[in-house]
Design a protein that fits this description.
Elements (H helix, E strand, L loop, with lengths): L2 H15 L1 H13 L11 H6 L1 E4 L5 E5 L4 E5 L10 H9 L3 E5 L14 H12 L5 E7 L1 H11 L7 E4 L5 H11 L4 H15 L17 E6 L8 H9 L3 E6 L11 H13 L6 E3 L2
Parallel strand pairs: 3-4, 3-5, 5-6, 6-7, 7-8, 8-9
Antiparallel strand pairs: 1-2, 2-4
């Protein structure tokens, strides 16, 4: 019996007896990131970065000079996971600022969620020059899109392996952990209370997206299904969809086709037009 099989069986049993207690435990686990150290291949780029601390204590890395591009990593991620893209942007004449998300890296906090990440982007943008683009990966992509609904201004936005609906993410986590229906529903409510926003509102279909964008997603992503990218593209009129047959959830960040598509978007702003890019 695998470890996860045992965990799901335990949660299924406990969830029927004490659904609220189990939901509270799962809520804390869902919002408490584990430490994620940079890999060896990230260290050269890390050594070239300038470490900056923003007004509200957020930590960030900065490279290059020129129009500013703001990056936000995903859950338990790191700025230097964007290494190939950062190099491409700097070489093309852009300044890159990559945040350590709240409760990640050197930024303060013990827990985080998509709303907290979105507020961090707003705080960072208030101290930076006008943004040429905001680029997010996974939960960082969801937070970037949400931030635009909270007042973030950017000339363009790139979503990489991002979900279109947060409620789907919560329900998928509850199923994966083996929570019975009652415990799963309470888990969602607890997350909503902690984030201070109903999960149903965190849906790109309800957003006003009046800027050009790029959506990049791999068909074989095991974490966020490719269908999320299609739903996002349908809701976002001025977006281009780059479908990659392979790349998973993380390896997609290193794909040269992603780097090229991002540079094409930035060069075309504000005339970016919708369509689907072939891989």
């Amino acid at each position: 019996m695998s470890n996860m099989t045992w965990v799901r069986g335990f949660n299924a049993a406990v969830g029927h007896v004490a659904p609220h207690a189990l939901a509270g435990k799962m809520r804390r686990a869902f919002m408490t990131p584990r430490e994620s150290l940079p890999r060896d291949w990230e260290l050269p780029l890390l050594a070239q970065a300038e470490r900056i601390t923003l007004r509200f204590g957020l930590s960030a890395l900065r490279w290059g000079s020129g129009p500013t591009v703001l990056l936000m990593h995903g859950w338990e991620g790191r700025p230097t996971q964007f290494a190939g893209l950062i190099r491409a942007l700097v070489h093309a004449g852009y300044a890159v600022v990559a945040l350590d998300g709240p409760a990640h890296g050197r930024s303060p906090g013990r827990e985080a969620n998509v709303v907290v990440f979105a507020r961090a982007l707003l705080e960072a943008a208030s101290e930076l020059p006008p943004l040429r683009a905001v680029i997010g990966h996974s939960m960082g992509a969801a937070s970037a899109l949400l931030a635009t609904q909270m007042g973030l201004r950017t000339q363009s936005l790139v979503s990489i392996a991002g979900p279109s609906r947060i409620l789907t993410v919560l329900r998928r986590f509850a199923r994966y952990m083996g929570l019975p229906a009652r415990a799963g529903a309470h888990f969602v409510r607890l997350v909503e209370e902690k984030a201070g926003m109903p999960a149903g509102r965190l849906d790109v279909a309800h957003y006003q997206l009046d800027f050009p964008g790029l959506i990049v997603h791999a068909v074989d992503d095991p974490v966020v299904p490719y269908g999320e990218a299609e739903a996002m593209h349908k809701a976002w009129f001025d977006s281009r969809l780059l479908r990659l047959e392979e790349g998973g959830h993380q390896r997609v960040l290193a794909d040269p086709r992603l780097h090229q598509a991002v540079l094409q978007l930035l060069e075309a702003v504000p005339q970016a037009s919708p369509g689907v890019l072939a891989s």
